[in-house]
Design brief:
The structure holds 2 protein chains of 2 kinds.
Chain A (H helix, E strand, L loop, with lengths): L3 H19 L5 H4 L16 H31 L7 H11 L4 H12 L3 H25 L3 H9 L4 H34 L9 H9 L3 H33 L5
Chain B lengths: L6 H15 L4 E4 L7 E3 L1 H4 L2 H19 L4 H26 L8 E4 L1 H21 L3 H21 L6 H8 L1 H35 L1 H16 L2 H7 L1 H10 L13 H25 L3 H9 L4 H31 L12 H10 L2 H35 L3
Antiparallel strand pairs in B: 1-2, 1-3
Classes of the chains: A mainly alpha, B mainly alpha.
Chain lengths: 249, 387
C-alpha cells in the first residue's frame, strides 16, 4: 500500500464527516430508502452539529478530569510514600473494569439527577481505568539506568518526576488516554438513555420510532469521530515516542 | 511498642468514621417512588444490635488504622462485612411497620460506604496474602455461598430490592438466563469462528491488517447503534430466508443483540490469537520442524498450546465485556438484566435499577476472577514444565 493512501482516506473521511454534520440535508436522498412511511431521513429534533459538539464536549470534560486524577494517582502510588497502595490499586483497577457502564450510569442518576451529570460521572469512572493502568505500567517500567543517571546528576525527586519520569512515560500514558477516549465516545451515546444531550439521542430516537436512517447517521458519526480521534492521538503518540527515543507500541 | 499507622488504614478509618456517624444507614420510604427519609444506625436497629454494630465497626476501623497482623485484619473485615450484611436485613424488618406492604427500606449511603471500606480492607488483605489462583476461586465460592445463604434464609426479604424481586421473580430468572445465554452464547460462537480466523490471519500475512482493521472499526460503532443497525438486515433475513423465522431469527429481540455481541467479541479473540501465535518462540517452531512435524501437527501440538494463555486473556476480555454489554440488549427488546435497569430508570425506581445492575456486576466480577485464575494456572503450569 502506498504511504499516502491511509492519510488520504482519513482526510476524505474527515471532509465527509464535516460536510455531513454541517449540512446533513445534502445526504437526504442517500438515507431516504432506509425510512418507512415518509418518515424524515435526517434527524429533525435538534441540529446534528450541536449534538456532535455537545457529545465531544462531554467526552472532553470527562477525559481531562480522568487524566488528571488517574495520572495523579499513578504518581502517588509509585512514590516511596505511596507504595503501600500499589498492590491494592492494581486490584481495584481490575475490579473497576468489571462494572458495566450502563450500571454506573443508572446508579449515578439518584445521586445527581438526570441529564449530563450522570453521563460525566460514568465516563469519568470508566475513563480512569485505562489511563491509570497505562500510567502505572509506564512509571514502573522506566529504564533503571536513566533513573540512576538523573539521581546521579543531583536532580531532586520533583525534578526527576517532572523532567524525566513523566516525559518518558508520556507515550504510554497517551496510549491510555486514546483508549479511554474511544471507549468514552461510544459510551457517551448510552448517556442519552438518561437524557444527556449526545449523539445517542439520534440513535435512540431512531430505535423508538423504528427509523433506521436515524440509527445509521448517529452511529456512523460517532464511529467516524472515534476512528479520526484514534488516528490523531496515535500520531501524537508516535511523535512523542520518537522524541523520547522509545519505540511506540 | 509504639503505635504505627497503616496508610491505607487511615483512609479506611476515615471512611468508617464518616459512614458510621455522619451518613444515613438506611432510607425509609412510604412507597417505592417517593423520596426517602434517612435513618442512622441507632434509629434503624434495636438498641442492643445498634450498639453491637457500632462496636464491631469501630473495632474494625481501629484494626485497619493500626499496623496489625494480616490474619487479624482479615478477621476484622470479614466479621464487619457479615455483621453489616445480616443487620441491614434486621433494619429492614425493624423499620417497616407491621403489615405495611407499601413501605420500602433500602440501604443508604452509610451502609454502602461501610461495605466499601471493609471490602477495601479485605481486598488489601487478600492482595497481600498473594493467594494461589485456586484459593482465589475458593474465596469467591465462599462469598457466593454466604450471599446465597442470606438470600435463601429470607433475612433480606424486608429490603426494597428483594421486594422488587418478589413482585417479578419469574421474569427475573427468565431475563437472567437470557442475559447469560446472550453473553456466553455469543462468546462461544466468537471463539469457534475467531480462533480459526486468527490462525488464518497468522498464516496468511496479507489478510492480517485488513481483518484486524475491519474488526477495529466495528468496535468503534457505539453499541446501541450497532444493535439498532442489525434490526434491518435480520428482519430481511427473517422475511426472505425460509426457516429463519422458525429458528427465532427476527428483526428485533434476541437475534440482533446476539449478532452484535458476536461482532464485538471477534476483535479480542482474533487479535489475541494472532498475538499469541506471533509470540511463539522461533526455537520451538524450528525444533518442531526439525522433528519432522507437519504444519498441522506443529499448529495443534506446539503453536496453539503455547499461544493458549494469550487467547484465554482475549476470552476473559470478551466475557466481562459481553456481560456488561448484554444489558443494552434490553433497548431493542433482547431481554437480559438490562430490562430492569431501563425500567427502573424510566420509573425513577432505583431499587429496580439495582435489581438489574447488581446481578450484572456480580456476574462480571465472578467471571473475571475465575478466568484470571484459569489464565494464571495455564500459563504457570506451562512455564514450570521443563523447556
Amino acid at each position: 500500500m502506498k504511504a499516502w493512501l491511509p492519510a488520504l482516506l482519513r482526510l476524505a473521511l474527515l471532509v465527509l464527516l464535516v460536510v455531513f454534520i454541517a449540512s446533513p440535508d445534502w445526504f437526504e436522498p442517500l438515507l431516504k430508502p432506509l425510512t418507512e412511511n415518509g418518515a424524515p431521513a435526517i434527524y429533525n429534533q435538534g441540529s446534528l452539529l450541536t449534538l456532535t459538539l455537545l457529545h465531544l464536549r462531554t467526552v472532553l470534560v470527562a477525559t481531562v478530569a480522568a487524566t488528571i486524577v488517574a495520572v495523579a494517582l499513578a504518581i502517588l502510588v509509585t512514590r516511596p510514600a505511596g507504595t503501600e497502595f500499589l498492590p491494592l490499586s492494581r486490584s481495584l483497577v481490575n475490579i473497576g473494569q468489571t462494572f458495566p457502564p450502563v450500571a454506573v450510569l443508572a446508579l449515578a442518576v439518584p445521586a445527581v439527577g438526570f441529564g449530563e451529570k450522570p453521563t460525566l460521572i460514568a465516563l469519568f469512572l470508566y475513563g480512569l481505568l485505562p489511563i491509570f493502568e497505562n500510567a502505572l505500567t509506564a512509571l514502573t517500567t522506566l529504564p533503571g539506568n536513566v533513573m540512576e543517571a538523573a539521581r546521579g546528576a543531583g536532580m531532586t525527586g520533583w525534578q526527576r518526576l517532572m523532567k524525566v519520569e513523566l516525559l518518558l512515560s508520556a507515550p504510554v500514558i497517551l496510549g491510555g488516554i486514546r483508549l479511554s477516549v474511544v471507549i468514552s465516545l461510544a459510551t457517551a451515546t448510552i448517556g442519552s438513555t438518561v437524557a444527556a444531550k449526545t449523539l445517542g439521542e439520534v440513535i435512540i430516537a431512531g430505535l423508538i420510532s423504528n427509523n433506521l436512517a436515524f440509527v445509521l447517521q448517529g452511529g456512523l458519526i460517532v464511529a467516524a469521530l472515534a476512528v479520526l480521534i484514534y488516528d490523531g492521538l496515535s500520531a501524537i503518540e508516535r511523535y512523542a515516542a520518537r522524541r523520547m527515543g522509545r519505540e511506540a507500541e | 511498642m509504639t503505635l504505627r499507622f497503616d496508610k491505607l488504614g487511615v483512609v479506611i478509618a476515615a471512611i468508617v468514621a464518616y459512614a458510621a456517624f455522619a451518613a444515613p444507614f438506611a432510607t425509609f420510604r412510604a412507597n417505592r417512588i417517593v423520596p426517602g427519609q434517612a435513618r442512622s444506625i441507632l434509629e434503624a436497629l434495636p438498641l442492643t444490635l445498634a450498639i453491637l454494630l457500632i462496636a464491631i465497626v469501630i473495632a474494625g476501623g481501629i484494626i485497619a488504622l493500626l499496623r496489625t497482623p494480616l490474619l487479624l485484619r482479615l478477621a476484622a473485615s470479614v466479621i464487619a462485612l457479615v455483621a453489616l450484611a445480616i443487620l441491614i436485613g434486621t433494619a429492614g424488618g425493624f423499620l417497616t411497620p407491621a403489615g405495611n406492604t407499601f413501605a420500602r427500606v433500602a440501604p443508604a449511603s452509610g451502609f454502602w460506604l461501610l461495605i466499601f471500606a471493609f471490602t477495601l480492607l479485605l481486598a488489601d488483605v487478600l492482595t497481600r496474602l498473594d493467594l494461589s489462583p485456586l484459593a482465589r476461586v475458593g474465596v469467591l465460592a465462599v462469598a457466593a455461598l454466604a450471599i446465597g445463604a442470606l438470600l435463601v434464609s429470607g433475612s433480606w426479604d424486608s429490603l426494597s430490592i428483594l421486594k422488587e424481586y418478589a413482585s417479578r421473580a419469574d421474569s427475573f430468572w427468565a431475563e437472567g438466563s437470557k442475559h447469560i445465554t446472550l453473553a456466553l452464547g455469543s462468546l462461544a460462537v466468537a471463539v469457534v469462528a475467531g480462533i480459526p480466523l486468527g490462525i488464518l490471519c497468522h498464516r496468511v500475512e496479507p489478510l492480517r491488517a485488513g481483518v484486524l482493521n475491519v474488526l477495529n472499526i466495528i468496535q468503534t460503532i457505539p453499541s446501541i447503534a450497532l444493535f439498532g443497525l442489525l434490526i434491518a438486515p435480520l428482519g430481511w433475513v427473517a422475511a426472505h430466508v425460509p426457516g429463519a423465522a422458525a429458528v427465532g431469527i427476527r428483526g428485533i429481540g434476541t437475534a440482533p443483540a446476539f449478532v452484535a455481541l458476536f461482532l464485538y467479541s471477534l476483535l479480542p479473540v482474533v487479535a489475541n490469537t494472532v498475538v499469541g501465535l506471533a509470540g511463539v518462540p522461533r526455537a520451538a517452531n524450528d525444533a518442531a520442524r526439525g522433528m519432522g512435524m507437519t504444519d498441522r501437527q506443529r499448529l495443534f501440538d506446539v503453536e496453539f498450546p503455547l499461544a493458549f494463555p494469550v487467547v484465554l486473556t482475549g476470552i476473559r476480555i470478551v466475557l466481562v465485556q459481553n456481560i456488561g454489554l448484554a444489558t443494552i440488549a434490553a433497548l431493542i427488546g433482547g431481554g437480559g438484566f438490562g430490562v430492569f435497569v431501563f425500567q427502573g430508570v424510566g420509573q425513577t425506581a432505583m431499587d429496580l435499577v439495582l435489581l438489574g445492575a447488581l446481578p450484572t456486576v456480580a456476574l462480571a466480577f465472578a467471571a473475571a476472577i475465575i478466568l484470571d485464575a484459569v489464565i494464571e494456572m495455564t500459563s504457570t503450569s506451562r512455564r514450570a514444565e521443563p523447556a
